[in-house]
Automatic annotation (TrEMBL):
Catalysed reactions, as listed in the record: hydrogencarbonate + H(+) = CO2 + H2O
Family as reported in the entry's similarity comment: Belongs to the alpha-carbonic anhydrase family.
Keyword Isomerase set for record: no
Superkingdom of origin organism: Bacteria
Residues covered by the Alpha-carbonic anhydrase domain: 33-257
Keyword tags: Lyase, Metal-binding, Zinc
Name of the protein described by the UniProt record: carbonic anhydrase
CDD domains: alpha_CA_prokaryotic_like
Pfam families per UniProt: Carb_anhydrase
Enzyme Commission designation: 4.2.1.1
Amino acid sequence: MNRLLISISVLVLVLSCQDQPKKEKVETNDKSNHWSYEGETGPEHWAELEGETHCNGNFQSPINLVNYKVAEDLEPIDLHYSEKTILHDVANNGHSIQYDFERGDFLIHKEDTFHLKQFHFHEPAEHLIEGVRYPLEIHLVHQNESKEFVVLSVMAKEGNNSKPFELLESYLPIQKGEMKLIQRPFDISQNLPQNRGYFSYQGSLTTPPCSEKVTWIVFKQAIEVSLEQVELLKYLMPINNYRDEQPQHGRAVYSTSF
């Protein structure tokens, strides 16, 4: 009888472990760890810390989206998002909370295909829209075969509770340096605003190595998330994990007419 009880206990323990998403350590290196958002490793020093960097370049991001030109020829973004695309994992890389996708979602920009790789959060927002900084900004990072980037930016403001955020945050909290497997389908289009009007300009990644030649598409309309949802991300991420506004240096900022 004792052996039977022990066997049953072991079986229950194994099955319960299988139901839990797997946690792993995030693979990091010195280049991703020796910069931060404050002090001697903060944004003012990124160009000094990185060996091959563009952080002191002339076409950096984020910027204040102001004095833009309305371009009648800007068309809606050609998005190909599916509710069947697999959300692979979530990681706390020490700089943000990042969700990684398996191959599936993509967009078409200038007749080229850019695959959605991951999305992450900045709190508060990095880009300003006519001088206004939102409490949260989501970056959807897309890349083509030539390693060029198109990044969609979604602003979030405090308001109604977001069902998609509930699902995402159900996999949190997660400690710094950990990765938790998800491997479930997720429709990222649920986190996009209903009005798909946007601003567009040429800039850079907003974290080291600050690579330039990045096409930014910033949605005009913000989505709503609850104060509690914002506070949870704020608790888990570095305080104020945003880069300050960068000089525009004569770059044109375009806006859709819708």
